[in-house]
Structures are given as C-alpha cells and as structure tokens.
Please model this.
Amino acid sequence: MKFNQDPIIAVIGLGYVGLPLAVEFGKKYNTIGFDINQARVEELMAGHDSTLECSDEELASANKLGYCCQLEDLKTASVYIVTVPTPIDQHNRPDLTPLIRASEMLGKVVSKGDIIIYESTVYPGATEEDCIPLVEKESGLVFNKDFFAGYSPERINPGDKQHRLTTIKKVTSGSTPEVADYVDNLYSSIITAGTHKASSIKVAEAAKVIENTQRDLNIALVNELALIFNKLGIDTEEVLKAAGTKWNFLPFRPGLVGGHCIGVDPYYLTHKAQEIGYHPEVILAGRRINDGMGQYVVSQVVKQMIKRRIHVEDANVLIMGLTFKENCPDLRNTRVVDIVNEFQQYGANVDVFDPWVNPVEAEHEYGINPVKEPAAGKYEAIILAVAHDQFKEMGADAIRKLGRRDCVVYDIKYILPTESVDGRL
Model:
C-alpha cells in the first residue's frame, strides 16, 4: 500500500510530550493538536504554554499547526500520534485508561490507509494486544490490511532546554516493514539527531521501558549506599566525588525518585513479567528502596529535632520544593508529597514553598496549598527537597533566617555546602 507522502498529522494529547511534537511537525506538515481539555486548547490558541516546554516564540513558529478538542476535526488526518499519559494506580499497577480511551476514540475517525503511532510508555505487547483491538472493534477495519500502527517512544525530559525533541535520537517501529520505513522517514524529517528503526513494535516498547528502569536501579543503588554511609558517619557526596574520578563510574546521586517516567515505568515492566510467570526481584527491590526515601528523610530530620529537644508535634516545618525535578512546574508523581504526608502523621504543621508550582494544580492533585512566601523565623525544620535555581541563589544564610535559632536544615539535593546544613542524603 502507498502511504500519504504529504500527510495531515494529528497529535492526541498536548502535554509535556505531545505539544513539542505537534510544534515540530507543525513547522513542516499540516498538523492538528488535539486535547480533551478545552482550557488547554484555548491557552495554546492564545499562544502560551503553561508547562513552559514551548516558548511563545516556538508556538508561533509552527505556522501549520492548529488546535482542537472536537473529535470531528480529526477526520481529515491520515497519521495519528498518541501521546497520552500512562500512569500507575495506587497499587502500582499500570493504568491504561487514557490509552484505552484514546484508542477507542481513534476507532471512530480512522480510515483505510491511515497509520496510528503510539508514543506513550507501555509494557511490551500493549500496542498490538491492548490498543489495536479496540481500534478494530470501534472502526470495523482490519489491522495491517485497512489501517496500520507504529510505536516511537517519547524521550522528552521536562524542563531540559539542552536535550530537546529534535536533538534526542528517536526510536521508531512499524507493524509491517513498509510502515516501519514510513514511520522512520516521518520522524527523520524533524529529528536532527537521527532515528533508530527497531525490528518490531515490541522491541521499541521494551527499549523504552528499560531506559528508565535502568536509571531507577542506578539511583536505588546510590540511595542504598547513602543509607549505609549515613550509618557509618561518612559524607555520601564526598564518597561519590572520590569514586567519580574513575572514568567509568556513573555519576548518579541519591534522592527522591518521582516524575512521569523513572518512578512509573519499572512497574509496567514488572507487571508484564509477573503476567508471564516471572517474579522480578532486582527491579522491585530498587523500587522499594526509592519509594521509601521520603520516609527515611523524615526519620532523619525527626531524630535531629529530638536531639535539640524540639517537639515534633505542632512543630512548623518548611519544605522547599514540590515539583518532581528542578526548574520545572511538573508535579506528576512527585515524591515530595511523601515527606509532607509523613510529617503530617507526626502532627507537624507543614508549609510547602515552590515558586514554580501552579497553586491550583497542587491543591487539585495533592490537597497542598503552597505558601507564597515563607515567614522569617518561623520554622523548627527546613527541608530542601528540590534544587530550583531560586533556592540556590538564596544561599545558606537567607534559608537559615527562615528558621528559628535551633532550626534543623536538611538538604536532600546538595544545594548548600556541607557545613551549612544539619543533615543530607
């Protein structure tokens, strides 16, 4: 079958992944950016991106990109790219609900000869076993005869202005060799870093899910080392700096592991592994360590407070940072909330300060109302949880002035010099 060489591309989902993709395609092809959130569509039509992934200038440069939230507007497309989120539920099981709904929706608009490309992170087999049958059922079309599929995993790093969509090599794949070539050529036309064409959709799915599983395990190892070194009275950062003088030592640092990828993707792989009868031990052990770091941080701060005869119950605690990473407004799966919840269980009064956060989103997602400006001299404990540039610029003296005389300052992210804090990972 001959595929459209001048396609109309529809990008489904205009979040951190979908919008940069729609913008790049919209510079070269007629592109439709679709999102079910009307407010999001209206903001983009007005020329602004609240996630800050795309500047106003970048949005304006995509002169072939339009936005919509009506299903009917998608019917003119011949290539559909799905970039909806794939979270986990409260039991750490994959939640494919957004992906399922997107697939069912596309079944209502897909036509003969069209291609559906998935970018959402999934376990190997999800595209062809979970998503495509829904499209077939809804459309009445036959897969790999009437319509086709591809998979090209997203590699967006929110807040990173150096590693952008076009400068990160892209993995591509297709449901037939001809589709694989078409999908690869399509992405090659906008990705300056080049592409890697995988031999199958399952290989591409597996490649994506292990990228972040590997990082998760590396961070888990360093987190466990930090627990050991803290018990030994050794500064973890000094150890890592010394070990880092060897050329092949990997520069990972301890910390909280959240976000839309690293803290989530391993559960997609372990779910599939358990489904086929294999119990993954190393991956889940790493997840347990990383998921327990918030509780560990609080235990260390509480010990310091008790040594100073500070009553933890009713103490005022300031947590600096709520987003899952520095210099970025992304709150998805932030593990800073673990620290908030743990202190609240001790009966402490917790203030959260984060200049990057949308207060409405923080309240909606986590029931947290961030303070606009922390009061000076108020706090018995201050936890530096996210390494925003604003916090680094404040410096140790300004941060300590927010606390009372015996205030405990704990630095998770190595923002301040060792001698300026009372504890860190």
